């Protein structure tokens, strides 16, 4: 004998049909790739219009707890993160539970929503009391299933969007990497009179490190190494602008004072003093046996002559790009240099750290350079890189690393 509406086959069929229609509506919305807000509106309508729910609050965890759907409540629940961060429920729980914050006690029960053991959401709700007394209240398992379907779909949409963004970024990085690689000299001299060797290890796909070597008329050679403040694409974009400006200037003049001053002015106009570049610029005159240089706030290169005497090249100016006009600028001409080695580098070399946070430092670098200064630059670089890796162990480089060696004379080495 049927004693209540809930027990009648007609009502049970109606409930199953309603649940099936609700799931179908949500599934179609997901398949139609409706936006997140549209899915929450459908969820809101189903629970409020079809499932005898008087009050509801849906909170989703996405880096922090946030309200996503609410109706019938006295509180707005605009800021729920602090109230939920310590709540840890595994099953449907009454709000009378002592660990439930007071703010949620206007509801009757809490439904946690999990996916693969990860807590995704909490549903706070109160059902229609008349429906509850007559035994026709909505089964919380169905609400849990419906919520899980919505929340997991939204999470998957966000993961897919992030994946697409990452793939697009990776494509952009690959393009930027190829462009940046073309900024470096395509071929460096390697003959009995002059050898240039460069090694470049970007911390990311692209970097702000730069080096250049340009053979000029009358057996003059221009060499530089530079480092942009910052990392990644912004640094690489600034470096490409720097390279273009430098290449134009070096075709117009070999006056290092003018070159550095013009570069500074150009960078300041572009960035308004918000970023800067350190750089070392040198001009070697093979006929006159002179080396002229300006150091613009860069780590001093090491010059070793044929007698094994070394010196750090520090004369110059401050970093370029900070001031509209450089506050001071000097240059040095080193004479009678026909056999020498000039080693330049960026700060990623000396600032490389081991597991104890100790830096590789200038002294270790200098020791390796002096030991292998008479070898081919390629061998020198190999030994220095091995030394850095031996020191750092498994600790990765923190910054871009660039090595640049100019060796003149010593045709038998």
UniProtKB/TrEMBL annotation:
Domain of life: Bacteria
Keyword Hydrolase among record annotations: yes
UniProt cross-references to InterPro entries, sorted A to Z: Bact_Sigma-Reg, PPM-type-like_dom_sf, PPM-type_phosphatase-like_dom
Limits of the PPM-type phosphatase domain: 191-408
Listed SMART domains: PP2C_SIG
Record keywords: Hydrolase
Name of this protein: PP2C family protein-serine/threonine phosphatase
Organism: Xanthocytophaga flava
